[in-house]
Amino acid sequence: MTGNKEDYLKAIYELGGRSKKISNKDIAERLNVSAPSVSEMVKKLLKEGYVEYTVYQGVSLTEYGVEEAMKIRRRHLLWEVFLVKKLGYSWDEVDEEAEILEHVTSPKLESSLDRYLGYPKFCPHGTPISKDKDYILNQRPLNILTIGDRGIIKRISDIKELLQYLSHIGLNIGDYIEVVDIEPVKGDILIRKDNMDIRVKDEFAEKIYVE
Predict the structure, then answer these.
(1) Which DSSP letter does residue 128 get?
(2) What stretches of the chain show up as alpha helix (H) in DSSP?
(3) pLDDT (tens digit, 9 = 90+) per residue, 11-55?
(4) Which of 113, 120, 76 is closest to 96 using CA atoms?
(5) Could you report the per-residue pLDDT of 154-182, keeping only the tens digit for each?
(6) What's this model's pTM, rounded to 2 decimal places?
(7) Rg (CA), the chain
């Protein structure tokens, strides 16, 4: 499979294509490509059995497509762990590098990398690294919590601007937090961590997952 096809499968998977229809527009925006390019690739993926297509609704992954997308995604996550733990990258630097490395990773290299890293269960952003299971996580985005709710930050969307912002305000995976206030107009959320109050912008709160 070409790296381009792998990018499409992973994008559809991460947009929720294992359980719902994804529009060509959403895929184009995710991959920063043109609409005609998406249409052409969807035709190829459909022909090869990776996706199903419904007119006016979009595409979803077949069981085969989900399986392949998870393999690609797993290689990506393993490389993120390697870059952070072994090469000292920060968590906002690894996505682009892992994107390149995932396409040139053989099954043997993937297995060796997994073993070398001690069989990690999560990437630096808290996403489970699964070999053959599609995890359903018992987590809620920070922006739907109410005042008084408490929990542990378990996962954060791999978005560079978000990760840099969280590093700046001092939030990370594993932090125990409590919601102490919600700004009525902007929707910004005031949380408490280690007796310190931290304000989280509403636009970022929906991408921080708490258990």
Answers:
(1) B
(2) 3-14, 24-31, 35-47, 63-85, 94-101, 107-116, 160-169, 202-205
(3) 999 898 988 999 999 999 999 999 999 999 999 999 999 999 988
(4) 76
(5) 999 998 999 999 999 999 999 999 999 99
(6) 0.86
(7) 19
